Amino acid sequence: xxxxxxxxxxxxxxxxxxxxxxxxxxxxxxxxxxxxxxxxxxxxxxxxxxxxxxxxxxxxxxxxxxxxxxxxxxxxxxxxxxxxxxxxxxxxxxxxxxxxxxxxxxxxxxxxxxxxxxxxxxxxxxxxxxxxxxxxxxxxxxxxxxxxxxxxxxxxxxxxxxxxxxxxxx
Length: 170
Hints:
Keywords: Cell membrane, Electron transport, Heme, Iron, Membrane, Metal-binding, Transmembrane, Transmembrane helix, Transport
CATH class: Mainly Alpha
Helix content: 55-70%
GO cellular component, one term: plasma membrane
Structural class: mainly alpha
Radius of gyration: 19 Å
Order of helices and strands: HHHHHHHHH
Organism: Thiobaca trueperi
Number of strands: 0
Number of helices: 9
Family: Belongs to the NapC/NirT/NrfH family.
Low-confidence stretches: none
Largest sheet: none
Distance between the termini: 58 Å
Cofactor: heme
């Protein structure tokens, strides 16, 4: 009985450690602590996702980390490669980051496309949009997006971070 209780206690401690680790690494301070992320931080701070008329603000994790616990942990594990790229000098300068920006952006866009832009849909919903108050082209595209097989990221690349030029691809 003691072994079962000890195992349960160890399991709870392990789960809490994972939860704490995910929460601690979901802050903007953590996400932008690498030199290469200073470019992304500046772009974010100039975007409507940082400062806007209604005062709603997202953080890095809102858009880059899935909400389900297993997916979030998986994303954190794969994010280690970004840390390694910083440590090994692959993207540790603005010039190197810019040279890889197209590739990095396409990786993020592919993940968002695969998730049907769930990161966006946490805050944005076509069903709740007042299409009559949008520009006519935007209203038409939003109205037919689902039928056309489109998701947010298909049209809204470069909303928070500058859309890279294809010529920067490596």
